Amino acid sequence: MSVVAFRAAAIAEAVSWTGLLVGMAFKYTDHGAAGVHLFGPIHGALFLFYVLLAVPAARAAGYGSRGTLAVMAASIPPYTSLIAERRVARDARS
């Protein structure tokens, strides 16, 4: 269950990154900051959701402390959460 929820969180976090990045692009091209105001809090909440679910998912995949920290850190660069999610899912099946 934790890996399935983690997959949903990783995908949602990546989608919210897209919204936030588009919102920032509009903000800095003088089209207003509405996108940042909308996607900023959404992305923040999904980021926290991802990080919280990363711990049980990493444990289900058999990762130790370093691996768990790496999965959690994957939420920081845009779209890296998708790579981490695939690896966790693969390792949890093994």
Structure description:
It is a single chain. The chain has 94 residues and is an all-alpha fold. The chain has one domain. Helices cover 81% and strands 0% of the residues. Helix 1 (2-27) runs antiparallel to helix 2 (34-60), helix 1 (2-27) runs antiparallel to helix 4 (80-93) and helix 2 packs parallel to helix 4. The chain is elongated. The model has no long low-confidence stretch (mean pLDDT 92).
* SSE class: mainly alpha
List the secondary-structure elements in sequence, H or E.
Answer: HHHH
Question: What is the helix fraction of residues, given as a range?
Answer: over 70%
Query: Which consecutive residue ranges, at least 5 long each, have pLDDT under 50?
Result: none
Summarize the biggest pleated sheet.
none
| Count of helix runs | 4
Radius of gyration: 14 Å
Beta fraction: under 5%
Query: Separation of termini?
Result: 16 Å
Mean pLDDT: 92
Coarse shape: elongated
Q: How many extended strands? A: 0
Number of domains: 1
